[in-house]
Every structure is written in structure tokens, then in C-alpha cells.
Specification:
The chain is of the alpha/beta class and 349 residues long. The chain contains 12 helices and 10 strands.
Length: 349
């Protein structure tokens, strides 16, 4: 297992992270999975044996049940792994049971610590933007948790480019904690993150954790043109996460994945994960599975090496259309582009 530094911190994390959104199956999260304690233990054991050192969860996953299962499985061996969780989403009926206010962040952290059965969280992530709470309040609350030793690093998730830079600028201006990472959706199904979020991370020194790198299973090889997926399937229905704006492009991408996979004797999913691990700025992919067999296949992606021609083929079939001002910069600014700029623009030059 390869380990990469998380942003500008000194923390080393495995290139694959154990995701736990399928743990519990309470409420709407039953659409994702309903992994209980015994299967969760098998999956976490397999990840640790493969060298994975980061487990990611969130308070909102199955209304806290995911955190409880993780805490149960890690009882007696908490210090063997890094734990990441999140705060922001609605956790109760009250007016202060959501958001990134000081009240919700601190109470949310205390609740997560209880459910996880630990006295510290390695990476505490704000799960989503809160446009009503001043960033100064949010960052000061995170600073309090850091000073108390309840949290060791802080990150964000699902911010836009301007929101991310505003948060970092506010932190720098006031001497408040900077995010060391962002957790974002990024896959061959939709490379939107390359417009702003990947270049921003490279420029500002943030690690990138990728959620749903297989697009919720869309890149598994099961969803192909003219083929009806067998078994339990939530994608290309009203589930809608991630949204599919161009189904034909998705099918074209999957065909390339399947063809490359056949050449290596591996699954399309393994190829899709290996591809993302080569992309600029990416630190770790958050993987999860409904079964131990799927998990084993995903873990094997860390060892798959794709050729330049295979990577080029995947780049081409999934390439995003250049929006303004990027197409203009390709035409008029190509003589003075930074490493961050080139993360998006290099293929178009």
C-alpha cells in the first residue's frame, strides 16, 4: 500500500480509505447498504490487512449508526488506525440540529466521540457549506476542538472553489485553523472537480479525498449500453447521486473501462480506481462495498498499473468540455500557466 502526505500536514494516509456509508442501513441509507457489525468487522479487518490506515464515516450516515458500528469494530484497537468523520447535516428536529454554528459543531463532535467510543478524531470534516453561519464562527469552533485535543486535523467537503478559497483566506487572515484536505466527488463519470477544486487544492496545498470514485457503482461495468443490471441496483433510477447528465458518454466510458480491464484480466471498477490514483492532487480514494468480495476487488486497485496509452484513452473518452474562462486561457495564456492551471488545461494545449 502506498501512503501519501495529507496536504501540508505531516500525516501519511493510505491511497485507499475505508468508507462506511453502507454501515447500518437506517432510513434512506438503506439504499446504499445495510452492513452490520459482523460484516463491517470482516471488511475493516481486510482493509487493515491490506495496509489501509484511514477509516471515513459521518454523523449523518444512518443517523449515527455507522459511527457506532465503526466504534464497536475498533474497540481495543483504536490507535491502529486514523479516524475521519464529519459534521454539518441535520441530526435532529431542532433549529440548531444542523449547520456549522459553534453550537452544532461542538455538540456534534461530542456526540461523534461518544458513538465512536474514542476521545479524539484524527480528521474532522465539515460535510457541506453553510452559507448562513460566518466562517469566523465555524473556524473558531474547530480551533476550540483542536486546542482541546478532541480533533487533530480539520478538513472540508463539498465546497465550491470560491467557498474553499474564502475559508482558507479567512483562516489565514485571522490565524484560525486551515483545512488540510477536502473530500470531493470525482470520477471518470464526472470530472467537474478538475475545473476549480483540483487546481485549488494543488495551489493551496490541500489533500484530496475522493468520495464515490466509482460513481456509486456506475463504473463497475454493470451499467452498459443495452444491458440491464442484475441484482440490487439503485443507479440510473430516482436515486440521483451522482446525477447522470450524459448517459451516452457514461456508456462510452464504461466500454473503454471494460476493454482495458479485459486486457489486464481485472474488473472495470479496478481500472477506474487505478486511473484516479494517477490524477494530479489526489491523495486517497474512499472505497466502500456491499460485500467482502467487492471490497477485495477495490483494494487490489492499489497495485494496478495502467499504461500511458490506457490512461490517454480514459482521459479522452471522459474529457470535460472547457468552460469559460478556461477555453480563453488555453488560447491566450498558455505561455504562463502554473502547475495548478495545468492540472486542468494540459490536455487541451
Amino acid at each position: 500500500m502506498e501512503y501519501r502526505t495529507l496536504g501540508r500536514s505531516g500525516l501519511k494516509v493510505s491511497v485507499l480509505t475505508m468508507g462506511t456509508m453502507s454501515f447500518g442501513g437506517r432510513g434512506g441509507f438503506a439504499n446504499v447498504g445495510s452492513t452490520g457489525v459482523d460484516e463491517a468487522r470482516r471488511q475493516i479487518d481486510a482493509c487493515l490487512a491490506a495496509g489501509v490506515n484511514l477509516i471515513d464515516t459521518a454523523d449523518v450516515y444512518s443517523a449515527g449508526l455507522s459511527e457506532e458500528i465503526v466504534g464497536e469494530v475498533l474497540r481495543g484497537r483504536r490507535d491502529e488506525v486514523l479516524l475521519a468523520t464529519k459534521v454539518r447535516m441535520t441530526m435532529g428536529p431542532g433549529p440548531n440540529d444542523a449547520g456549522l454554528s459553534r453550537h452544532h459543531i461542538i455538540s456534534g463532535c461530542e456526540a461523534s466521540l461518544r458513538r465512536l467510543g474514542t476521545d479524539y478524531i484524527d480528521l474532522y470534516q465539515v460535510h457541506e457549506w453553510d452559507g448562513l453561519t460566518p466562517l469566523e464562527e465555524t473556524l473558531a469552533a474547530l480551533e476550540s476542538l483542536l486546542a482541546a485535543g478532541k480533533v487533530r486535523y480539520v478538513g472540508c467537503s463539498n465546497y465550491t472553489g470560491w467557498q474553499l478559497l474564502k475559508a482558507l483566506g479567512t483562516a489565514d487572515r485571522l490565524g484560525l485553523p486551515r483545512f488540510v484536505s477536502q473530500q470531493i466527488y470525482y470520477s471518470l463519470q464526472a470530472r467537474d472537480a478538475e475545473y476549480e477544486l483540483v487546481p485549488a487544492a494543488i495551489d493551496q496545498g490541500l489533500g484530496i479525498l475522493v468520495w464515490s470514485p466509482l460513481a456509486g457503482g456506475l463504473l463497475s461495468g454493470r451499467y452498459r449500453r443495452g444491458v440491464q443490471p442484475t441484482g440490487d441496483s439503485r443507479q440510473l433510477t430516482d436515486w440521483g447521486e451522482p446525477p447522470v447528465h450524459d448517459r451516452e458518454k457514461l456508456y462510452d466510458t464504461v466500454e473503454v473501462l471494460v476493454g482495458i480491464g479485459e486486457g489486464h484480466g481485472v474488473s472495470a471498477a479496478r481500472v477506474a480506481l487505478a486511473y484516479l490514483l494517477t490524477k494530479p492532487g489526489v491523495t486517497s480514494l474512499v472505497i466502500g462495498a456491499r460485500s467482502s468480495e467487492q471490497l477485495a476487488d477495490n483494494l487490489a486497485a492499489a497495485d494496478l498499473v495502467l499504461t500511458d496509452s490506457e490512461l490517454d484513452a480514459l482521459d479522452k473518452v471522459s474529457q470535460p468540455v472547457l468552460l469559460y474562462p478556461y477555453w480563453h486561457q488555453v488560447r491566450t495564456a498558455s505561455d504562463r500557466l502554473s502547475t495548478a492551471d495545468l492540472a486542468l488545461l494540459r490536455p487541451y494545449l
